[in-house]
Inverse folding.
């Protein structure tokens, strides 16, 4: 057991500084009162406890992301992924897609990739949360942010959006950004839409949170009534989970994307190449990857990181049912753990629904655990890690802690947690208690 593991299982100290969190969340007058509103409406959004990570594991995650990006860039990968996607995904206007999310569980011998998300939410909230935690236990003040990277994250995020604009529009000036989702005010992560709007506005951009039904497609441009007269939409920060823009009310956005009239990020191509759960089947197919010329080192790395994944078909139904206790079932087009099931919890009724749907079966990788304090009692919660990335570079690492079958924000003591990467240290034989 390394020091990070020992602290996660033996140190329940609470490191969240609420006044600092308020400062980080309410950076603009328009965000005043956000902290209090979140405490009432999202009581389990933020954990008060940080998650510790060994530096070697961080290196493994970084290397895994880089290897995955190299494989996904292969022409053979792109052809097979796009062939099964709607035609809209074949368009390539240039942008890479903001806020990719690589989700990992920590096994005894290293991280395991659970899924890739092309529309990973929570980055703005997690950046604020990470800046609001203080060192605990007296011995670790220097490791909470030794390189002062957290203070520059807002600049990194804004630069990412500007790069997306330049990849499609070159040197043309970026004037406005629309943060778009269905009924945005009703979304669980709606508070970060307001945070994104405030950040963009602070950079001199016109920023609007919008429902796609408010958009208008006319005269070869995309329009929104909140923008100045005669000014079309420049860039859409797309938070829709209608990944191919096919749903009712999304017609104007789809027309604009097809015509390249507005920069849309993330976009359908990104979802097809990265986030379709069937890609996990390909990533665990050794023979196929070898035939595509995946390098020896990348091949070996993927073999360690990617759990075996297979399609759920009627032909294999009996075998899959027999093996179900070692499997996790996910819809190919799913997101946010919706309609995902642990095999050891399956009923026959749910199994029939899985067989009738488009599912993949992934070898279960049990999540690691974090000790937290709840009402003066210590409990162990499950945890996973999310690497927010852009063009293969990890921008921010965050954790989620929870109890139950899948990740949720309903667990007392759980929620988003900042990740503290510790220097490499010798292994320790037992956990040492730590108090706040």
């Amino acid at each position: 057991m390394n020091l990070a593991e020992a602290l996660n299982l033996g140190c329940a100290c609470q490191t969240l500084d609420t006044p600092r969190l308020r400062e980080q969340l309410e950076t603009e007058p328009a965000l005043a009162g956000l902290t209090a509103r979140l405490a009432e409406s999202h009581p389990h959004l933020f954990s008060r406890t940080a998650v510790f990570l060994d530096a070697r594991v961080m290196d493994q995650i970084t290397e895994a992301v880089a290897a995955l990006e190299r494989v996904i860039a292969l022409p053979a990968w792109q052809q097979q992924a796009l062939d099964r996607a709607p035609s809209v995904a074949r368009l390539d206007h240039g942008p890479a897609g903001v806020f990719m999310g690589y989700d990992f569980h920590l096994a005894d011998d290293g991280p395991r990739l659970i899924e890739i998300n092309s529309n990973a939410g929570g980055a703005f909230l997690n950046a604020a949360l990470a800046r609001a935690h203080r060192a605990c236990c007296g011995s670790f003040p220097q490791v909470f942010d030794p390189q002062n990277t957290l203070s520059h994250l807002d600049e990194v995020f804004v630069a990412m959006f500007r790069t997306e604009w330049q990849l499609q529009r070159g040197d043309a000036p970026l004037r406005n950004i629309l943060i778009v989702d269905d009924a945005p005010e009703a979304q669980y992560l709606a508070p970060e839409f307001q945070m994104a709007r405030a950040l963009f506005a602070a950079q001199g951009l016109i920023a609007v949170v919008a429902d796609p039904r408010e958009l208008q497609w006319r005269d070869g441009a995309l329009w929104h009534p909140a923008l100045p007269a005669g000014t079309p939409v420049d860039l859409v920060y797309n938070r829709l989970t209608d990944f191919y823009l096919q749903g009712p009310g999304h017609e104007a956005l789809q027309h604009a994307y097809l015509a390249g009239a507005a920069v849309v990020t993330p976009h359908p191509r990104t979802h097809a190449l990265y986030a379709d759960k069937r890609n996990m089947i390909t990533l665990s197919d050794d023979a196929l990857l070898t035939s595509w010329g995946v390098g020896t080192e990348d091949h070996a790395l993927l073999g360690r990181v990617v759990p075996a994944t297979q399609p759920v078909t009627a032909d294999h139904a009996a075998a899959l049912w027999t093996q179900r206790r070692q499997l996790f079932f996910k819809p190919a087009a799913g997101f946010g753990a919706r309609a995902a099931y642990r095999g050891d919890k399956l009923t026959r009724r749910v199994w029939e629904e899985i067989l009738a749907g488009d599912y993949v079966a992934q070898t279960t990788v049990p999540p690691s655990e974090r000790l937290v304090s709840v009402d003066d009692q210590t409990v162990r919660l499950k945890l996973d890690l999310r690497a927010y990335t852009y063009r293969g570079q990890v921008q921010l690492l965050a954790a989620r802690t929870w109890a139950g079958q899948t990740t949720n924000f309903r667990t007392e003591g759980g929620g988003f947690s900042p990740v503290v990467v510790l220097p490499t240290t010798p292994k320790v034989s037992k956990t040492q208690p730590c108090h706040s």
